[in-house]
Amino acid sequence: MHSSSGLFEIHDDVLSVDVIESVYSRDAVLRTAYWFTDRCYLFITRPGPGFLRVQFKARALKSDLVVEALQEVAGEFLNSLLDHQIRQDIESQTGRIRELLVAKAFAEAGVLEDIPPGEPGDSVEVHQRESGLVNIERT
Amino acid sequence: MITPLQDTDESPVTLTHYVYTPAAIGETIRAFHELCDVEADVEEESTHLHFYPKSDCPVTVCDDFLNYALELSAQELLTNKE
User: Fold this and answer.
1) pLDDT for A64
2) Is A15 in contact with A56 (CB distance < 8 Å)?
3) How many CB atoms are closer than 10 A to CB A96?
4) Which of A24, A43, A19 is nearest to A84 (CA)?
5) Which stretches does DSSP call E strand in chain A?
6) DSSP characters for A9-30?
7) Looking at residue A5, what is its pLDDT?
8) Searching chain A, which residue's CA lies closest to the CA of residue B63?
């Protein structure tokens, strides 16, 4: 059986969708695919430079609902892919600023400074110097 | 042309290294060695696989193999970037 519904091609209960790499990166496709492997079988090919073909196959045995279920999963896949791609784009545009803000916040809070050695209850010796200064040493 | 997910053992399944890393493919072959024998023809940009499922293995073994390889490859490629 072969049919087409705009976004998808369906052939022998395998649904395929082409993804253009100028819009969606390979990393976004992989990240999205990783989260869908528990729902269906996925296979990714690269028929030519610049686009990837993602194929979906149902985990369940053949039934009348297979095609509809695959279309639903593939639709969710594409939405999730868009979500991952946008996150990736925002990260590449604002990631450096976010790192600077976090670094500044930690620096102002002083949580990155070294902790003074010893414990408050440690015994010490106090030596009075001729200059008047006091030298304190841990014993 | 649409490549069937579960291919027969007559024609190879081609995995592009752009998506499936050789290391992930090799690890998957080792993980599935009790379920099916796999003959791998490794080229520079892709690996061609011939599946020879064993008699008592599940019918979905090839599809499971491909999913597993995809998961490992995604982990490898994405982790190396971070």
Assistant:
1) 63
2) yes
3) 10
4) A24
5) 2-4, 9-11, 14-20, 40-48, 51-58, 124-128, 134-138
6) EEETTEEEEEEETTTS-HHHHH
7) 59
8) A41
Hey, what are A19's tokens? 């993804």
Cα–Cα distance, A68 to A7 (Å, whole number): 14
Residue B26: what pLDDT? 96
Q: Taking an 8 Å Cβ-Cβ cutoff, which residues of chain B contact chain A?
A: 1-6, 14, 16, 18-20, 60, 63-64, 66-67, 70-71, 73-75, 77-78, 81
Beta strands per DSSP E along B1-82: 13-16, 36-42, 46-53
- Taking CB atoms and an 8 Å limit, are B4 and A33 in contact across chains? no
Question: What is the Rg, in whole angstroms, of the alpha carbon atoms belonging to chain B?
Answer: 13
Note the pLDDT of residue A29: 97
Q: Which amino acid is at A75?
A: G
Report how far residue A22's alpha carbon sits from residue A31's, in angstroms, rounded to the nearest whole number.
17
Q: What is the pLDDT of residue B2?
A: 39
Pairing of strands B13-16, A124-128: unpaired
Contact indicator for B31, B68 with CB cutoff of 8 Å: yes
A9-41 residue pLDDT tens: 888 889 999 999 999 999 999 999 999 999 999
pTM: 0.76
DSSP 3-state assignment of B54?
Answer: coil
Q: Are B70 and A59 an interchain contact pair (Cβ–Cβ within 8 Å)?
A: no
